[in-house]
Design a protein that fits this description.
The complex is a heterodimer of chains A (458) and B (225). Chain A has 22 helices and eight strands. Chain A has two domains: 261 residues, 2-methylcitrate dehydratase PrpD; 116 residues, 2-Layer Sandwich (60s Ribosomal Protein L30, Chain: A), CATH 3.30.1330.120. Chain A is 53% helix and 8% strand. In chain A, helix 2 packs parallel to helix 20 and helix 3 packs antiparallel against helix 4. Classes of the chains: A alpha+beta (458), B mainly alpha (225). The interface between A and B is large, with 63 and 57 residues.
């Protein structure tokens, strides 16, 4: 049975959707979904800690010193405190800047960063219980994804960074639930959020890309705070001729947004990246890692990577000069997989990107886009110096919907991100705190586990 | 340091900017319902963003330069140079630059029907004003404009509603934030207006880049309204 409610002119589609979210928030999350939400949360918290010293975070903290209010919120992985606005900006930025966060494959939304950033920013002000915090996070993610599905793929194809544009309304839902807005208040927050989308794909390759989920979180909090004061946007702001959907896409399917709330969960389709670069290159990297087992990289004459057309479109940088550019270079991922046998954050350090072996192998590698290739598939064809041809085909990339990252793989990834920043044992504290988040635990314990331990003495 | 603005028509542009500033100051003496809501909603924010947001919200509907003036004033108050600006020289220059950028963008970009063009270009103009008030160099100014472009909004659906007034306040606060982030090394796209996935490609059907850049900084058009 479908739970669609035909929106009347009074409520509008955003209001009907908000009513559905409110009713979901009253009940417990289905158990498997609660676990998926914890997986999403631990992944983005780990990433935020891992990138805590990124120059972009330093710039946000420096701006907060001049522009910020009372320091009422922490920043994952750091000792300083800033106001909630800048905490949201910093946490959302840090979680996305390594391009290593969660991905909803149908929309290419990375939903975790913005909603996690709202939790970090508002934890102390709102003091939610553990179940309420997890629900606020999960429903915020679900909101982003459902709006995204309703306007995809035309919206992203046109050039919008869907993580930013759809992130704002999701963050507004998380913030409204944490701040305890009533039903009408949550609806106002969603409508206001839809008036302040952000995110152009032209920003890819610069810090502005990761600014998008950070600012989506900040905009969502602002929308919730204005909504709490009774501010509203027009009821039909989503569907009207000069509204959100018309401005941002040539497609809007309200059914995708409204239907089956509570039985169809887009968040259940969330996936986690094993490699810190654009996800469309992951199948080719999987193939390269498999080939590495039987090919000496020094003997390679030519690599032809048969891939989905989005690979050259999104990750076509042929000559990257630093780590950020390399994240948009599929041939760099392939080259370092063949050279190093692993593709982690060290493979995206500038020094590694510029080293001769990687440059040489990149120069020998060609992307061959094919409309027949699925997005999570790839085939690598390697010609060696002696003329031998070696091939590897990947049907479903690691971390794809058909081949999800296991909890063990995910927690190992989080450990590699967190422990260099916070020391031995810190990843276990974070993972345990997130796994326990529920009726018997609070959000405070999760937030505390992302911060440097303060010595009891001194 | 970037050379102070000059060129044909600049004096007239500066006079228009001064009028805009004085109009804004007079209007801000009258408290509005919106500004009271804004002030309560932004209680946890720092004074510079709260002031920019509040002024932008209050002035929306009073002045078409609301976001630009609010951003210029709030940013200039951040520095010693701004405090020493007793005759409003810097702040008026900043407003003149913001007005010129906004009008030139409106003249050269044909926005798609759903967008309120004036609201979109005001956000970019506000960032240009904030960048000048913050004395940003060329690179940092480009990054600040890039941050403004990627978050430029303005749905036609909210034009004339309270939501548009708050969006105007937000555009002013965003501009101040963009200038400070860029000042501290934050980066954004260098082709944020004309790029293949930039503002004009996403929000407009036509962009006459050549006409935008032709006489920019040499001839000023913003004196006439």
């Amino acid at each position: 049975m479908r739970s669609t409610s035909e929106p009347d002119t009074q409520t509008g589609i955003a209001g009907a959707f908000a009513a559905g979210i409110v009713s979901l928030a009253r009940g417990p999350l289905p158990q498997p979904l609660a676990h998926e939400a914890r997986r999403a949360l631990v992944n983005v918290l780990g990433l935020a800690v891992g990138a805590a010293r990124h120059p972009g975070v330093e710039a946000i903290v420096a701006a907060a010193r001049v522009l910020g209010g009372p320091p009422a919120a922490p920043i994952p992985g750091r000792g300083e405190r800033v106001d909630p606005h800048f905490a949201a900006l910093a946490a959302g930025f840090a979680a996305h800047v390594d391009d290593f966060d969660d991905t909803h494959l149908a929309t290419v939304i990375h939903p975790g960063a913005a909603c996690m950033a709202v939790l970090v920013a508002l934890a102390e002000e709102a003091r939610p219980g553990g179940s309420a915090a997890l629900t606020a996070f999960a429903l915020g993610c679900e909101t982003q994804l459902r709006i995204g599905v309703a306007i995809s793929p035309e919206h992203y194809d046109r050039g919008w960074h869907i993580t930013g544009t759809c992130g704002v309304a999701g963050a507004a839902v998380t913030a409204a639930l944490l701040l305890g807005l009533d039903d009408a208040g949550l609806a106002r927050a969603v409508r206001l959020a839809l008036t302040v989308p952000l995110g152009h794909r032209d920003a890819f390759g610069t810090m502005a890309k990761a600014f998008h989920p950070g600012k989506a979180a900040a905009n969502g909090i602002l929308a919730a705070r204005l909504a709490a004061q009774g501010v509203d946007a027009p009821a039909d702001v989503l569907e009207t001729t000069r509204g959100f959907a018309a401005a941002l896409s040539s497609r809007f399917d309200a059914d995708q947004l409204l239907a089956d709330l509570g039985s169809r969960w887009e968040l259940a389709q969330n996936t986690y990246k094993p490699y810190p670069c654009g996800i469309v290159a992951h199948p080719a990297i999987d193939a390269a890692l498999a080939l590495r087992e039987r090919v000496d990289p020094d003997t390679i004459e030519e690599v032809r990577a048969h891939c989905h057309p989005l690979v050259p479109e999104l990750m076509g940088n042929a000559d990257p000069h630093d780590g950020l550019e390399a994240r948009f270079s599929a041939i760099h991922g392939i080259a370092v997989a063949l050279c190093d046998g692993r593709v982690g954050l060290p493979q995206y350090e500038a020094e590694r990107v510029l080293r001769a072996d990687a440059r040489a192998l990149r120069a020998k590698t060609t992307l061959v886009p094919s409309a027949d290739m699925a997005r999570d598939a790839a085939q690598l064809r390697v010609r060696l110096r002696d003329g031998t041809i070696v091939e590897e085909r990947v049907a479903h990339a690691r971390g794809s919907a058909a081949r999800p990252l296991t909890d063990v793989e995910l927690f190992a990834k989080v450990r590699l991100l967190v422990e260099p920043q916070l020391g031995e044992g810190s990843a276990k504290r974070l993972i345990d705190a997130v796994l326990e988040l529920g009726p018997s635990a609070t959000l405070d314990a999760v937030i505390a586990s992302t911060l440097p331990q303060v010595s009891a003495r001194g | 340091m970037v050379a102070p603005p000059a060129g044909v028509g600049f004096d007239a542009a500066r006079r228009a900017a001064r009028t805009s500033l004085l109009t804004a100051r007079a209007a801000l003496h009258v408290p509005s319902k919106n500004s009271a809501s804004a002030s309560r909603a932004l209680a946890s924010y720092g004074a510079p963003l709260r002031r920019a947001f509040g002024a932008g919200t209050s002035l929306a509907g009073v002045s078409e330069d609301a976001a630009i003036v609010a951003a210029a004033v709030a940013t200039s108050e951040l520095s010693a140079r701004g405090h020493a600006d007793a005759d409003d020289v810097i702040v008026i220059e900043a407003i003149a630059i913001g007005r010129e950028i906004a009008r030139q963008l409106a003249r050269t970009i044909t926005f798609d029907a759903p967008w309120d063009a004036a609201a979109v270009v005001a956000g970019i103009g506000a960032a240009a004003a904030a960048a000048h008030a913050a004395a940003l160099d060329e690179d940092a100014t480009r990054h600040a404009l890039g941050l403004a472009a990627t978050q430029a909004a303005g749905l036609g659906a909210i034009k004339g509603t309270p939501a548009a007034a708050f969006a105007c306040g937000k555009a002013a606060a965003d501009a101040v934030e963009a200038a400070l982030l860029a000042h501290n090394g934050f980066t954004a796209a260098s082709s944020s207006l004309e790029g293949r996935r930039g503002l004009a490609a996403l929000m407009a059907s036509h962009f006459d880049e050549a006409a935008l850049c032709e006489d920019l900084g040499r001839r000023w058009f913003s004196a006439d309204g």
